[in-house]
Structure formats: structure tokens, C-alpha cells
């Protein structure tokens, strides 16, 4: 039975119109997308599609990675909604044409496999990312259909879906397997949403339910696959391609890395590779949304709480283990080692969005905005052309020679061997409108605050609404309803906000927050205006004392924005700095700094450098200093140097 | 020209008679040595020697590692000086006989190579540890000669030396190479010392001078070797055996890992694999000792200062990088990650001993005793049958699932795949007498304080001396001269000691410390007694603020002993504990704890655990607690748990 859930607004019905997120959408259109398309073209990823479509293109020694074409297809579709660009649209349509030309008759479409191993199919689900790639192609094509109405793209996506339905399932002759990297689950649900065809939902159900199952007469698929490949080929197929294999191995034993150690509905604690995990949990949530399955829902809830209670870094990302990009043990949150991959934060954001739709609660939105502002945005430089894969909370460049720091960087890269994050950010930025406001039967749930114009598909009929705000720079949000209708406007009150007020047509309206949302139920008239004022003084944040590495330390936030100190403002050896608990945090608008930011200053103490032996009889002298913090999302946009989020706090007046 | 240096006392002329170090010698004789010999026997290491000697022994699938037989040979020889044991002596003589039987006519003796690759020799110096093994066999055999007068052992060691002289050198037809793991340098110098034969010294000179050299017509040996092996065998030889290869590779580029990136006399900063480094620097110091070469001496001095100024952990060990067991960058001293291998501390101790002989200075002795008491002893459990390879300053077992913690253990192992440390500790403990007192022409330099009876080979003739002390448990050292002679008694005044006094035959004698030694020059009469009283209240120690990870923290020491907190005494989550600067450190003798130790207590504060979200608006409440510290060398002898050396210090009265 389908569960009653909040509806997403169609992309065409929710357009960002101002504020910081829209600035990033502009950056997407103007910088990120052209740059990334150019990289894919130069790298040969598009040539590989041309070759798969039958065209003769020059051979390259390094064929490029077409894996991320799917994500860029998606981002391009969204970008064309944001700004008309006939040349880009032609290029996109040409690409869709090439993909349809390349697609096999049964729907299979994976240019790199078609070019390099045309006769192999689904031989190494454990490591090949084969369906992960198919999933991203599907999502990209479906975005072209959703955003631009491109029927050819829909046909092409359907073909892939049909191919999967034909190859996978419990019926005799089908493969009872699933991909080592979940993603196709999200694509199948999206295809079901676009077509209404049950078979795609059933295919999703199969992938969710089959994962991690085994029994006496039904070996674990990954065991079976590896055994089959050893017998058939004398070695693992494709598995040996992974340069990470040695590092991952310790975690492979029971396939926890792949979320395949238990059947989905038995999962309770988030574990394994962080991106794989969040994507699979999204698939579980999608299925729960469609089926109303309470057991699956309970698993999703428990997994979410696991993240929230012990595994999310303060910048809203996850994956404490730097070597296997994996979710660590609860409360093990080393600020200088955690992986905090940009894609993992995107995965958490997408999972939170689904949980929000399933059972609206401000806690989901709170976490989503932390991930969005403090990791997704931090993943891109202010020029849109440099990217972070990992987003640690502390970087001491002097130590980066160490092998345990191999994933940590003090400078964003221009591109990477594994360029999964940049196009993932691009597509997420492109579709932000989808996440801002959700619709109940007769309710509008405002989850993310941004300049926005949208149309709510209420039961009583469409209602247009406008939101104007400079959030998260300022805490004032003005919402104007443009049509008459009786409905409840629900506004998320972030848990970090201690004081807020709601005004209706200029008059203060009493309202209490319930499950993180304040509600205004009334018959709205065109022009009615609600204003939410969230107080957002900069504040100190502390971790649960079980978080070993963060004990006795404090970080600074302002609204949803996390702050950090950079060497550029504070000199070297940031670990020398202490923050007295009595120091006042002061904010300053700096128009010309880092694209315009509020900086925060506080009087701090710093251990002075004094010549002497390595170990000494007395503590160093302290000097007063002005600590200056900038929003974390803007770090590493100046000269390379140290960065630090948490500072030891001195308690005065003991 | 031979440099005038302090003389070592022959082993037979310096016997430990009491105190803590002698307790460890008893542990060596009673527990460590029988246990380790049994392990080598069980593991098949001795069988491999029997097989090499021509005996038929059962084949084993896992042939054991005979590499460490050399070290145990050495330890056994010393043990037989400490306590007569006819059965053990027979066993040792039998082993020496087997080795001589196994030795090839040209002197080559390496049972594992002889058994597994009889026709290969010196093919992969980069990775094979082949000469490292030969070196340890030589040292073991020479110890049997030095301690027991076994001429067969000397013959056998000479044979190995002759083999090396024949194979290596700059002459045409000889190999211009050197081992990837230095050690043979020390053995050659020892062989030179036992025989007086110049050719062994020349061979040492070759190995020291040739290392790291390259030029247009003289490629770097390791480059040449790898190229030759690829051409000859199509792959690296033996190199692929290293399970660490992948981790090391980043540091191999210029052979810095192997101290072969520069010629020895150009070395200034200690770098590379910590054990390899210290062993090679020992070889350099040995050569400098013999040749009076000032340039080489300057290099040694600079390398030592490099360690002392930025790379030694507070427990006297080195090697900050956990993955390649390597020396890190200065001031990068992560307490929870540093490798601090037991063998590396031994290497540093041996290097310090040579520097002390070359240019006597208390700083060398200070560092030697830190390494000895806080790493070498910590490397062994109180039962003598469990060992640490790594000696970090902080262990949080909850985090040990992480791959970057793969080398960190919270419990000593019974044995290990790479059992280099236990027999290395065994041999060092066995020869401690060698390091306590050094002899000048007419001077006695007391460098380590321990119960001791020794005979000084002064120019004027032998002088017997007795030392009685419970150091480092107590700071009182009584030295009695038993023969008449005019000479200067020099006593090391540790830099940590703020107050000390010297008494001669019961009367206070004014004396100043110069270069870390107080001097008493007089005509000594039999029975004359000097007493040194070192005040050793427990004290706080602080690191240079450039040591990023140790900022704002303090550790506790008492005399040369480092202290730590264990979970057994202080509960879990030691990172929650703060130490106010005003807290008094109190010491308590606990006879029944950990073999009898002074414990230290102090009133501390601890963040209380309170339910709540992972990140919070306010800091945790603090509770008072009694922090209890035990000597670091005794940690991990009770139930497994956390351990921590450094604690954040709160400054009160700001």
C-alpha cells in the first residue's frame, strides 16, 4: 500500500530566484558546467560515446571516464531550465541521439563496457560499478525528460530499465545479483515515477530485497560471483582494477563495505562505504515510500538516527575512515583524518530528503542544510573550477607527507582520477528547487530557505508562492502567497535557532514549533505575506564528550554555516590557539572577502613560540590574539595553508 | 687517524648487581630467553639451520624466520655470562657447530637463502635483508666469542666477514652495492674490534662511503640493481615479497627510506625508515670513531640533533609515520599514530652510546635512558612473554578498526610475523653492562645508573668500582672505589634534574655539572665512597608549541620515567580528562602493583557524559576526579583498555 508522503514539486514548478543558493546555480551555469563538459570532452569521455554510437573517432591511450557523463547529462538538463542556451541544448540533444544510437537493441547502454568488453555483461557486479553507471545514465536521461520533455531520452532510459528487468530477478535464468555500488535503485524509482510502470518498481524491490541475502541453497551473490569468476576466468574479473583493493580488503570480509552483509530490512546501524550506504538507504526509503512497508521504514529511521547520533561530522558529511571512504564507529570523528566525501554528503542530503517526505520532521531538514552549506558548497571553489573530494575539519599541511593523510588535501584539485564529486555537485545544485518546498495534500512544507518561486500542487488546486530571503546570510524569510486557498504553511525552525518570530501581514503571530516546523493554517489571500525571523547570532558548538577527538573543544557556527580559521587570517600553527569561554564572538560583514561573507572574530590566546628543547619543564607563554573565522564553505580559496574548525576552549571563572 | 674516544668495558668487566635493570636481566634469563628460544624452535627457525647443516629434518609448510636467530645467539651468549646454565651452553655450542657446518666454504652463511635459493646471492640488496641477516649472525657469533671465548664462533663470524670483503668493494668484479637494511656495518666494526684486521674496517668504510652515491658513469646501485633484475628475471627479485611494498612506495622514489638518497657525509637530517636510519648512523659513527673523520662526525652530530630537536617521541622512540615505520617531519609527533618501534629506540640508544663515546655529553645519556626505560622496557610485558612492536603515546581501542591504526595495538602480542623486536630487546638487556660506565684514559664516565660491579681499564691500571642504587625508582647512587688510583669520576647529571648533591665519604662536595657531567678528581683510596643524590619529584613536561598535536597538553615524568594513565585506573574516554596546572602531583609507592612502582595521582577534571545530541549548544559539565598515573613501561599489563600520556592542562588563575 502506497504510503502517504509529501510530494516533490516538479522542477518546472520551483525555480530559485535569489539568495546564496541561486548564486551557486549561476556559478553552475556559468563556470562549473562549461568547465566540466570541457574536461569530459578533452578526457575522451564523449568520444567514447561517439565510438559506441558507431562513429570513427581518434583512438586515445587514455580513454577517459564516461561514468560521470550521466551526472553531467543530468546537470545540463537542469541548467537549461535555469537559463536558455540553444547551443548547449543542441549539444545535449546530440548527445542523447548518440546514446540512443549506441544503445543495444535490448536496452543495454554502457559505452565503456561496449567499447572495451562488448561480450561481457554483469560479470563482476561486486567491483565493476556497471549498474552504478547504468543508473547514472538513466537518471541523466530522465532529467532530460523531466526538465525538457525530451521523449527520446525517456525512451533511452526505459530501454536501460527494460534491460535490467530482463536480466535481474528471482525468476529462473535471471541473475539474482545486485551492484557493488548502489545507485541504480534511485534511477529505477525515478523511471517508475516518470512512466508509472510497475515493473520498474518491482525491479527496485528486487534489488533492495535481494541484497545481502544468503542461505544454504542460495549462496551470497558476491561469494557466488567471485567463485564463478575464479572458475571461469582463473581470477577475479575487474576486481583487480581497483587501486584501492588492498586498503579495502579488511572491510570486505562480510561485504559490510557494500551494505550486503545483511538483508536490507535487518540493517540498523549505518556501515560500509559512505556513498554506497547513503545511496542504498535512499533506495530503501524510495521502496518504503511506495509500499508503506513499516519494517523497511523502521530500518531507514534507525539508519538515519545512527548517522545523526554518532557518525556525522560537524560539516554535515560522513565517512570517518579515510582509507575505505567508509562510515566508522560511532563517536570516532577525527577532524584531521575523516574522509567526509562530498558525494557522501550529497547522499546524506538525498536520504534526508526522502526521510523528510516519509515522515516530516525538522531534524531531517536541519541535517540536509548542514550537508548542503558546509560540504556540498565547500566541495567547490568560489571560481567553480576546483574541487574537494574530502572535506576534513582540520588540515595541517606540514603533516600531509604521511601515508595516513593520503586523502587529505589543502588545495582543491582541478580534476581527479576519480572525478565523481564535481558532476554530482553540479546535478545537485541544478535541482535545488526540488528540495526547498514539499507539498502535502493541503500543506506547504518549507524545508530549505532560499529565494524561490513555486507552484504547490495542493488538493484544492495549484497555489503559487514566492519566497524572498538572503538566508543563510540573514535569518529573515518572506513568503508571499499569490493565490487564494485554505492550507497550512509549515516553516522549518532549525534546532540551532533559540529565538524566532513569525509575522503575518506585518503582525506578530503566535506559533509553536512542532517536530521542527511552525504552522500557519488559514485561508490565504493573494498577497498575504508571512515573515519568519530566525535569530542567528554566531554561537559555539560542542560535541558529545564521547567524541574522543573533540573533547574540550568548541567550534563556531552562525545559522547553518560552520566556521573555520585559516592560516591566511591567523598565522601558522593553529593548534596553538585557545578560545576562552568568555570571549565574545563578533560578526562583521565583509563585502569584498570570499564573495561576501560574515566573518567572526574573538579574542583568543595563542601559545608563543620560544626557542628551547623539544620537551620542556614549563608551559609556553600565551599571547592575546584576534582569532578570525570564515565560513567553512569558503576555505581554501586563498593561499594554501592550515585550516581548523575546533579550538580548545579555556573556561575562565572556575 | 683514530679518534680518542671513551672505551667500552668488556662484558666480563661490567656486571649488573642490582636495581631495576638487573631485574630485567633476570627476566631475560628466566622468561624471555627460554620463551623466545622455544618460539624459534617451534617456528622451525632452528630446523632450517639444521637443514642447512645437512641434517634431515621434517619439512614444514611455514619454514619460520631464521633472521632473528642471530640476535638470540647474541642474547644467549650474554645470558650465559649473567647465569651459568650448562644445558643452555651446550645448546648454544651445538648451534654454533651447526652454523659452521652450514657455512659455505667462502664464508657465506644464511640458512634461509641457502635452503630456498642456494644459487642466488646478493641479487636484491634493496629489499632482501640479506646482509642485514648476515650482520646479525656475525654479531651473534662475535658475542659468543666475546662473552664465552668461543673460537669456533669467531672463525665462523670471520668467514662471513671474509665473504663480504670478497664480494663487495670498488675493485673490478666486486659488487658496488650495499644492503637495503643497514646492520652489517655494526657487525663489521665489531669483527674488526675482535680481530684487529684492517680489511673488515675497510669493508665497513666501503659500505658507509658507497651508500647513496651515483654519477653519470656510476648509476645509483639500487637503480642499477632493479634494472638488472627486470632485464634478467623480468621482475623485481624478492622485492615483491614485501607485504608493505604498496605503503612504502611513496617514500622509495629517491631511496630516502633506505638512507641512500645522499652519500653519508652529506646527510644532515634524519630521514627514512627509523631502524635502518639509526643502524646506518651507528655505522657512520663507528667509522668516524676509527678514522677521526671530522666531516663524518659533523654529519653524525647533525643527525643526532635532528632527532633530538624534532623527531623523538617523549618515550624516547622515533618513527612518526605508522605506515613506513619512518622518521617523519620535525614536530609532527601524533601521539596516537606514531610508530615508535621498539627496535628504533634500540637503534637510537646504540647511536647515542656511540656519540657519547665520541664526544661525551650528558645529553646523549639523557636520551639513551629515556629510550631504554620508556620504550625498550615498555616493549616487553612484565611476564617477559608479550611484546610491543609499536609504542604509541595514546591508544583508544575503539578507533583501532581504522586502517590508519593498523600498526597500533592495545595489547602486546605473543609473537608476530615480523618478530624483530623481542630478540633485539633480549640482546640489549643482556649487554646493558656495556653501556653503564665508559672509561677515559684516567676517567670513569658513569652514564647509566644501576647496581654494577666493574673494572675500569685506566691507563694507570685496572680499578674496580661498585655502584649501588635503586635508580630510576630512587635518585640515590652510591659508588665505591675498590682500588687506589688518581682519576676523575664523572657522573651524569640528567637535564631533568633541578637539584642534586654530591657527597664524598659522607661529606657534601661542591661540584658543577659541565656538559651534563659532574666531576670528582682525586686520588681514590680503596673504600672511598661517592654518593650522588638526584632529586626526582614527579614533574610536568611540555612540548615545543611547534609540536602541533601536543599543544596545550602536559605529560608527567619522574626522573627518567614517563607516566601514563590507563583505563584500568581512570575509567573510559581518557580524552575527557583535564589536568589543572594547580593540581599537586603526589607519588605513592605501590609494592604490589605492576611489580612495584611509584604511582602518581593528581586532582583532575573530567567532562561528564550527558545524554543529548551529537553536537550541542553548551559544554559538558565537569566533575572532579583523582587521576592516577603509572610508569609508561608498565602499561598494558592489566586488562586491555585506553592509555594516554598527554593531558590538556587547564591554567587557573589567569
UniProtKB/TrEMBL annotation, chains A, B:
Residues 21-431 form the Non-reducing end beta-L-arabinofuranosidase-like GH127 catalytic domain. Keywords: Hydrolase. The keyword Hydrolase applies. Residues 445-536 form the Non-reducing end beta-L-arabinofuranosidase-like GH127 middle domain. Residues 539-648 form the Non-reducing end beta-L-arabinofuranosidase-like GH127 C-terminal domain. GO terms for molecular function: hydrolase activity. InterPro entries: 6-hairpin_glycosidase_sf, Beta-AFase-like, Beta-AFase-like_GH127_C, Beta-AFase-like_GH127_cat, Beta-AFase-like_GH127_middle. This is Glycoside hydrolase family 127 protein. It comes from Neglectibacter timonensis. The lineage of its organism: Bacteria, Bacillati, Bacillota, Clostridia, Eubacteriales.
